[in-house]
Amino acid sequence: MKFNDTLTEIIKQDLEMGIVPALMGEPGIGKSSFVESLAYAMSSKAFVLPCNQLADKADLTGARLVPTDNGSYKQVFYPHHVIQDTIDYAEANPHEWPILFLDEINRTTADVTSGALTLVTLRRMGHIHLPANVRILVAGNDKGNVTTLDEASLSRFSIYRVQPESSALVRILGDQLNGWVKKVLTRFPELVFQKATPNVIAADGNDENDDATASFTDLFDSGEEMNQLTTPRTIENLSRWLNMTDHEQLSRYLATPTSIGERESTMLNEVIEAHVGNTLFATQIVAAIADDLTSGNTQNTQTQVVVPKPNRYTQLKSASTITEITTLVADMSDSEKSGSLLYALKEKEDNSRLIEQLAEATGAIESDHTKTLFSMVSAQQAHTPNIEALLELDMPLTNKIKPMLSAFL
């Protein structure tokens, strides 16, 4: 299945019902980014535990032998800090569904994979149980050097063979996506995942009698060439690099001849291929940059800002009196208040009454929500009357953000 809105909808339903989805696919295709975006869309957070970074099962389960007062030993469990962070957040936000994301579950030792599966099955580490509102999601690779899962293990999951989707990557990266990258992904969506054209990568030899070179294959004795891929991960890295590079520098690289192996090329090609490999995607990116630098057209295209709807927002909207709203807001976590205020500002309805109650009860807008708020306002995607209603309030929260928000009105 492609990383798109349909998959998001399906995975959300699994999580809401307590089913554990497993996302299986090639490395670097965007599984981690998808999960973080999914958690934000569910108005919660994802806590990522990379299983491939664990040395043994004890790093996951936290089992330790601890001396007792009478000189004997007992086994005590100290959950991995990511698991403990998930538990703490879930207990502080009982109306959310925080996601414990066990990434690379099968790209590790069989012992660690077994421990992760036990956590999925029993929902506890020793005597410490996961709160009921914690949702578990796992991801792994279906090829390469991985730990094989037997049928009994696989039956614990709903398994989705996932593939990257250009539109999902564009949505996830939003305003951070470089304009040229977005242009190519929109025009050629099939280029979001590609393997490089085979090419020998060489290092200078030291034999003065010939010009022999040693490839990285020889140096590392891997049996395969070290070729970069075009994947959502490498595309995101290229996008970040392009955003930090000025047009004069790009023009200079484009005009500087060089060679890549036996190919005559330019410095710009070499840099682009370093990020995403010798692929059609790299070719199209260079062409897009060259065309725009020549024509002077370097304007980025606007992306629709995604604003998550908190689980209890519907209850807030259905409240008929100020007293009902106040009671509901008093029972919400700081994250829920911040997220509800953000959604109320986005919604194309008169939410002035709700905004006033939320602003009064909200100490500060969460950092993720703050980024979304300014992206939404700068892109003119907020409901202007609701923004104006917020700015008219004389409260500590509004006084903090008035100077910045007023600049966009």
Outline the secondary-structure elements.
Blueprint: H1 5-16, E1 20-24, H2 31-41, E2 46-50, H3 57-61, E3 63-67, E4 73-77, H4 81-92, E5 99-103, H5 110-122, E6 124-125, E7 128-129, E8 135-140, H6 151-154, E9 157-161, H7 166-173, H8 179-187, E10 194-195, E11 202-204, E12 213-215, H9 216-220, E13 229-230, H10 232-244, H11 247-254, E14 257-260, E15 263-266, H12 267-276, H13 280-295, H14 313-318, H15 322-330, H16 334-346, H17 352-361, H18 367-378, H19 384-391, H20 396-406
Parallel strand pairs: 1-8, 1-9, 2-5, 5-8
Antiparallel strand pairs: 3-4, 6-7, 10-13, 11-12, 14-15
Model description:
This protein is of the alpha/beta class and 409 residues long. It has 3 domains: 5-163, P-loop containing nucleotide triphosphate hydrolases (Rossmann fold, 3-Layer(aba) Sandwich), CATH 3.40.50.300; 170-295, no CATH class; 313-406, no CATH class. Helix content is 48%, strand content 14%. It contains 20 helices and 15 strands. A hairpin with a 5-residue loop joins strand 3 (63-67) and strand 4. Helix 12 crosses helix 13. The chain starts with a helix and ends with a helix.
